[in-house]
Amino acid sequence: MLGSISSLLAQTVEELDAKITLDSQILAEQFYFYTVVVMWLIHVGFMAYEAGVARRKNIMSTAMKNILTIAVVTPTFYYFGWYIYGCFEHGGPAQGHAGPDPEFPGFCGTTSPWADQMGPNLGDHISAVFFLAFLLFSWTTGSIMSGALIERVRLSAYLLLTVLLGSGVWIMDAAWGWSAGGWLTTRFGFHDSIASLVVHGVAGAFALGVLLNLGPRIGKYDMAGRARAFRPHNTHMTLLGLMLIFTGFYGFYAACLVITSTAFPGWLNIYLSPTTLGSIAFVITIGFAGGFTGGWFASKGDPFWTLSGGLAGVISVSAGADIYHPSLAYILAASGGMLAVWSGNWIERKLRVDDAVGAVAVHGVCGFYGVFLVGIFAGGFPTGVNNVETSFGGQLMGMMAFFPLAFLPGYIASWLLKKANLLRVPPEVELEGLDMAEFQQDFFPEFERVPEVIVLPSGEEVEAAPILLEGFSQLTNGHRPGARVGA
Amino acid sequence: MIDSFPFDAWGDDVTTFWTFGPAGGAEGGSLTGTFVLTGLGMLLMVASLVYWVWLENKKLNAQAAHLRTAGGLGPAAGESQPTGQPQA
Questions:
Q1: Of the candidates A75, A100, A102, which has its C-beta nearest B45's C-beta?
Q2: Cβ contact (<8 Å) for A487 and B25?
Q3: Which of A162, A221, A269, B39 is deepest in the core (most CB within 10 A)?
Q4: CA distance A196 to A240
């Protein structure tokens, strides 16, 4: 009698356990699904932000870059990007990478495009949505680079470069330093919990490598090397885009955590160290506040840099968002907002790199700054499943590994495209505007285009296009015919 | 009754459908079909990237040549008509 009751209870407990496990997995599946939905706003935001910054003759070509990022990064990330994350944690391919082992595939074996977990699978509620969250991070890296290159890069060149960045470079660095088993994590306690460096810093460094080959927009610098301002065609759209990016960042932050209650006792960061959703929500919110404040004061109230300062502030505290006190995050984010303004101006005026949206400063500089700050303010924190203490040296190791990993592919790939004359649009097309060449139409047909003018020392106003084209021809050793552009 | 919903039995049937998977696991499925689909998808991925480069190069060169020869602005000959006002 007792035996049968005991057997019945055991069976009931087993059934309940199975149901709770299934519920937990389905809740996690829903959680990641909705982080993906929220993260779409990042891309809506980047599109509006960059299209607003562009001059009216380049609006659609700018927006199409953001949209087609999805078209190229999604399949490439599916076919090889996710496999890199799963199998390159130790720097090279892991054992078992050739295919899934039915007995114990390990993470690597689940990431090849023909793996059981990479398609519809009734027994797996996690892999697909986890993949999707990382895919959205990949789009983000492409969108970060996108804004820096606008108004002169070829769409196809951008797409090739964003495949390299979104499905190759960033996911390799994530395997190394943004996973529980990555060599930087397990050996050096590298800590970048919400991806200051692995997403933002790396995308910024890659973009810098591309910008050095791409060169500035025609007319950006005068003959004395002084930077000229290209006014955004719609600042409101740019600011709205930034606000949408900020909204999407809450999804980005949430997606960086791990939760499956029957497998883990609570929320974990990407290194599987305990934290809470509330902790990171504190930091991102007060990070925006600090960043806006720093950006406002450093730029003396410039709207573009105030909002960019908010983004820079959050990026500066993201690496330690799982452990920072809100007051510390506020102070550090304010410093990050200021740093973005100062470094952005320095890059434009001293380095003479034409970064149309300040991406190298906001994402690149502040991404590296964020990881640097963790070395100072969170040294000694036990990171990862091995509880390796985070240290300043470990953070430096990550920075030294990731800068060449990002910068060199960007520089080399763009150099090759430049040599093949596939990187930049022809100067005549650039002066006319990319929309006419790419789409054969003006997207503001009701409004007359007003040609840019240059004021001569005599006070006479003349059309700028022929002068700019002649100047560009001289700078490029006359390889371009100095034909007159414009009526 | 929901308790009699034959999910497991139907699930077994579903997983053997060739596009559903698991691809080559113990439950069966079509590993060959999965490999063929994967190969075709990769082919489309590469072909689309190549075509993007080729098509844009053609468009940009045509427009640049048109601007050089005509000295005016607007779409190159043979391209679709603009819907907007050409640049002055």
A1: A75
A2: no
A3: A162
A4: 23
